[in-house]
Specification:
- Helix content is 0%, strand content 49%.
- It has 121 residues and is mainly beta.
- It is built from no helices and eleven strands.
- The strands form two sheets. Strands 2, 4, 5, 6, 9, 10 and 11 form a seven-stranded mixed β-sheet that branches. A four-stranded antiparallel β-sheet has the order 1-3-8-7, with no helix packed on it.
- 32% of the residues are buried.
């Protein structure tokens, strides 16, 4: 029932920008906190950012703070990740995920299939 579909990943040069989108369906989107995570082959999945259900509070991993911005449009059931000043270290598959409650303290219950972001010259 729950579906999360990421899009927007592509090849970009260092210093460039991308905006990822996550289209959500099958649940009341506005009731749940949402997160972005990323994964590099051979490494564990790394948390990137979380936003509360109403968008009032956002948190970021130290590695992306100041460069990435998470946001959501509850009217469109869509989660976004604006990525600026991209570095090669940001290369990964990016996943959106749904929490089990309205705040980031709740656990995750679903993940999308991911979208590939490659930062390279």
């Amino acid at each position: 029932e729950v579906q999360l579909v990421e899009s927007g990943g592509e090849l970009v040069q260092p210093g460039g920008s991308l905006r990822l989108s996550c289209a959500a369906s099958g649940f009341t989107f506005s009731n749940y906190a949402m997160s972005w995570d990323r994964q590099v082959p051979g490494k564990g999945r790394e948390w990137v950012s979380t936003i509360t259900s109403g968008g009032g509070r956002t948190t970021y991993a130290g590695s992306v703070k100041g460069r990435f911005t998470i946001s959501r449009d509850n009217a469109k059931n869509t989660l976004y990740l604006q990525m600026d000043s991209l570095k090669s270290e940001d290369t990964a598959v990016y996943f959106c995920s749904k929490h089990t409650g309205a705040t980031s303290s709740s656990g995750r219950s679903y993940w999308g299939q991911g979208t590939q972001v490659t930062v390279s010259s």
